[in-house]
Amino acid sequence: MKYRRFGRTELQMPVFSCGGMRYQYKWQDVPLADIPDENQRNLEATIHRSLEVGINHIETARAYGTSEIQLGQILPKFPREKLIVQTKVVPKEGSAEFRQNFEQGLSSLNLDYVDLLGIHGINTPEILEACLRPGGYLEEAKKLQSQGKVRFIGFSTHGPTDIIIKTIETGEFDYVNLHWYYINQHNWPAIEAANRQDMGVFIISPSDKGGKLYDPPQKLVKLCQPLSPIVFNDLFCLSHPQVHTLSIGASSAQDFDEHLKTLSFLDNPQEILAEIIDNLEQEAINILGEEWVKTWGIGLPKPEETPGNINIPVILWLRNLALAYDMIDYGVMRYNLLGNGGHWFPGQNAEKVKEYDLKSCLVNSPHQDKIPDLLRQTHQLLGGKAVQRLSQA
C-alpha cells in the first residue's frame, strides 16, 4: 500500500479507503441480533482483507443503516492507533439531533472516538449556512472535538462546485469528501481550493458514480486497454498528488483486488495514461464531433435557472457518455435519479421538456437551437423507471 499525507491532519492516509456503504445488511437500523451471521461474516472478512493489504482507513456514516453497528463488532479487535475511522452525520433537525446521531453512531462503533467526523451533505447554501451559524452543526462538531470524541472535522458534498469552494474557503474544515474522476472533472477547482487550505482530499465513489466501472461496456474496456476501466480511473485520479485517497465501496473481500493493480503503476503513471486518455478523447470526437466535445458545456444554465428545473448540463453529459462510450446502463441509472435525488442529485429529467421554452435560459449556449431536441432524444434513450438513492431504496 502507498500512503499520502492527508492535509493538515498529518494522517498518513492509504491511497485507497474502505467505504462502508455496500457491505452492510440494511439501510435502516435493525437490532444486532437480526443481522444474519452470513452477512456479518462477509463484512468482517472484508475488513480483515482491507487491513491485510494496508487499507486502514474505514469510512462509514450514520446514514448507512447497519454499517456502524456491524463495524462495532470487528473494529475494537484491532489496535485502535492502527486504524483511521471516519463517520459522517447528516445536518438536519437541529444541533441536538446531530449530536444524538453522532453519539448513537459512536456507541454502535464501540469506539471512544473517531479520527474523522464529516458533516454529511453540504450541498446547498442553506445547509452551509445552517452549519456555520452560531449554535449550528459545525459548532456542535467542535464541541465533540473538544471532548476528545472527534480528532478532525471535515465535510462531504454532492453539491455544485461553487458551494464546495465556498465551504472550503471558510477555513473551518480539515478535509473534504467530493466527487471527481475521469468522466466528471468539474470539481477540480474545488480540489485546488482544498489544497490551498491544506485539507485532506477524499474522492467519493470513483468506481460506481465514476461510471459503474465494475460492470463496464465492452467499448470502454477496449478503449482503456491495457488497463481495466477501474485501474485506469484509479490511476487517473491518483496521478494527481492533490488527491489523497479514493473510496472503494467494497461489498466483499475480493473487491479490493482489481484496485490494488493500480499500485504498480503509481510511480510512473503518465506514459500509460496519456495513450488511454488520447483514445477516449478521440473516440468522443469521432462520435460526437470536435466542436460539440469542446463547446457543449458553454453557457448552460443551472437547474434553478431553467424552466421545469431541468438539469440540462447533467442530461447532456450523460448523453455524451452513452453515445461515445456505450455507457447506457450508467446513463439510465443516473438519468432516472433526476427528480428523485433531492439536493444530492438536483433537478429534473427531460420528460416534460416539450412543455417549456428554453430559448432564454440557453441564450449563452452556442448550441441553443439544437439542445431542446437533444434533451428529448436523451429522454428516449435513457428514460425509464425512476431510481432512488441507495439510502432510500
UniProtKB/TrEMBL annotation:
MF terms in GO: oxidoreductase activity
Domain NADP-dependent oxidoreductase residues, every copy: 40-167
InterPro entries in UniProt: AKR (IPR020471), AKR2_Oxidoreductase (IPR053135), NAD(P)_OxRdtase_dom_sf (IPR036812), NADP_OxRdtase_dom (IPR023210)
Name of the molecule in the record: Aldo/keto reductase
